[in-house]
């Protein structure tokens, strides 16, 4: 019996890939479009297909600039803040859209009333007809608000601890640098594990110098 020729799986996969044109059904296209909008860390959909991805990216950048996170934990908390804020904004928009749509669909019994009265009554009727949906949306918003506050507090605490530690380390580093300078020697901070930039070290030295000058000026004026 003759041996069957060995199957080249890699070649078969390449040939199959050339014939693939992606999802053809509307459902498949919908799922595919969501992949580009998923959060890279959690796989959750953050930006809905009807929302502006560029606007979300600008929104996220504004939080990153404000908090200037350092390390993976701070970056994750900033991401959570931005995502929660985005969802809160979406909830507010959903509420307005829900009321607008409900008001437009309701039959207005006051066709002879002034436009202002008709608008007020339409909104009141929309509130009544959508009370359950609005209550659920309100509960959702409250949960998001609490989540935002907890995350912001956690981030502030974490950054305060980090900044306190960095300030103490910078003060120690400046003391060491001054000691070496008094000996006419050059000190390399990295040899003791310091990871501050030259700009950070320079700013700390200048800040300490200004504080010292201010203290001396105050003593002279008080003498």
Please explain how this structure is put together.
The chain is elongated. With 223 residues, the protein is mostly helical. It has a domain at 30-164. The model is unreliable at 1-7 and 29-43 (pLDDT under 50). The protein has helices spanning 9-19, 26-35, 53-67, 71-105, 115-129, 131-182, 198-222. The longest helix is centred in the last third of the chain and has 52 residues, at 131-182.
Task: Fill in the keyword field for this structure.
73% helix, disordered N terminus
Please describe the topology of this protein.
Layout: H1 9-19, H2 26-35, H3 53-67, H4 71-105, H5 115-129, H6 131-182, H7 198-222
Helix pairs in contact: 3-4, 4-5, 4-6, 6-7
Question: Care to give the gist of this entry?
Answer:
This protein is 73% helix and 0% strand.
Q: SSE order, as H and E?
A: HHHHHHH
Reported for the largest beta sheet, the result is:
none
Mean residue pLDDT: 75
Structural class, by secondary structure, is mainly alpha
What share of residues is helical? over 70%
Strand content: under 5%
Uncertain ranges: 1-7, 29-43
**Gyration radius from CA atoms, angstroms:** 31 Å
Distance between the termini: 112 Å
What is the count of helical runs?
Answer: 7
Specify the overall morphology.
elongated
Say how many strands there are.
Answer: 0
